[in-house]
Amino acid sequence: MGEYKDSLHEFEGDSDFFPPPPRHRVGRERIHIQKSSVCSRAYFVVVMAFFHLYIINIIALLLYVHYNTGSGEQDVPLEKSAGSPRAVPAEHQTPSSTAHLSPEMSFQLPRLEGIRVGHVQRVSIVPDRTHNMRTLSLKPLLFEIPGFLSVEESNVVMQLAQLKGLTHSSLLTNPDQEEQLTQDELFSLLDLNQDGLLQREEILSLSHSTDGSWLSSYNLRKIHTGLETNPSGVLSLQEFKRVSGGVLRYSGAAQGLDGHTKVRQRSTHTRLYLGEGTHHLLKSVRNRVTRLTRLPSSLVDLSEAMEVVRYEQGVFSHAHHDSSPTHPDNSCTHTHLAANTSNQVACRYLTVLLYLNSADSGGETSFPVADNRTYEEEVLGDLSQQYCDKGNLKVKPVAGTALLWYNHLSDGNGWVGELDEFSLHGDCLVTRGFKWTGSVWVNIDPDQQRQERYQRLVSWHPEGHSKTPEHGDFHQDL
């Protein structure tokens, strides 16, 4: 008995001999479930990769729209401050101080993006202010810019045109006809700032007289030679008579569908020079066009003068193209001094049309075939009251609003291409009151080498003479 107790005590002392009683588990037992492949780590990685690619594409699209709308464009000062003179940016320097457009550099003309009809983008054309630019059409590429000029500025332009003197539009219907002018009349027409002296810019790049007419190549070369030999760099009336003739020849500008020059019945017009030596508002118009189009200032500065037209009640213009089709046998009227061909046509890369007043009734600018060709072919050229309503796109004239459209397509290499036939346009009948417009054209030769030769020629000026003569300051307020 004692031995049994001793053995029992030994077993009790050994804690490992008797295992502890099983514990009762609290709660439900966890059941093992095999993980689904839908929630696997590999699937999660693939989903996240596609999500990041989607976000990157959205960011890239936003950046593309941002840089093409010009919202990030910095304002460039248009004029030097009297108190703190600053260097003029390269894009606003005068042609004499700007590098020439060299074909070897493969220069490409900037071209605005329309995106889609109705798209609105912000553009900077004056310091400390932006304007809305709305796409009206993609064929042709057409934009509307409200508030390009203020109402007060529009009134000043009309007053300047009246001070310059309005002349009746030509009644010629055949572009082969010629008009003989006296040397006094020719001098007055070429003297755009009416200072009694002819400068190089007026003779070479702005040698217009009446609607659609230019100096002949022979006379232009004679005048240019006389200017080069004159130490003062300008020509007075007596010097002009000595070196010039009096022949003006009409070009093929503003032709209608039948190939004849269309007539603006009972409308009056004049041309206002936008360069140095003229009213500060006209120079501001030139700078705004340069900033809006983003073209080099040398191209805008050497283009023709702004044409201001007053349409009386009952007046309309037939549908026409502002520019001419490209052809290897033709030369542009603005660069024919650097060409060897006799056939001259108008080469207007783009048009900026300014509405200077709000017509009481009628006077819309119509684009009959904008974005499609559903218009009746037999009435394409007629924009009288009977047919104007059939136009695919009509823009009502509002004072200060500007229209910009390209008359030419791109050639695929960033230069001027074929004529955009969709740019056909005209003025509807003014049914009440009158309408004032100002047309600014940018002349660019489809032949890039010829355009570059022309710019080298007109940028020359005698050593020691300023590009802007001193007498030009006397006419700032004309």
UniProtKB/TrEMBL annotation:
GO terms for molecular function: iron ion binding; L-ascorbic acid binding; procollagen-proline 4-dioxygenase activity. InterPro entries: EF-hand-dom_pair, EF_Hand_1_Ca_BS, Oxoglu/Fe-dep_dioxygenase_dom, P4HA-like, Pro_4_hyd_alph, Pro_4_hyd_alph_FE2OG_OXY. Its cofactor is L-ascorbate. The keyword Metal-binding applies. Residues 1-12 have a biased composition (Basic and acidic residues). Residues 1-23, 76-103 are annotated as: Disordered. Residues 301-444 form the Fe2OG dioxygenase domain. This is Uncharacterized protein LOC791209. PROSITE patterns: EF_HAND_1 (PS00018), FE2OG_OXY (PS51471). Keywords: Calcium, Dioxygenase, Iron, Membrane, Metal-binding, Oxidoreductase, Transmembrane, Transmembrane helix, Vitamin C. One of its GO terms (biological process) is regulation of erythrocyte differentiation. The lineage of its organism: Eukaryota, Metazoa, Chordata, Craniata, Vertebrata. GO terms for cellular component: endoplasmic reticulum. The chain crosses the membrane at residues 42-67.
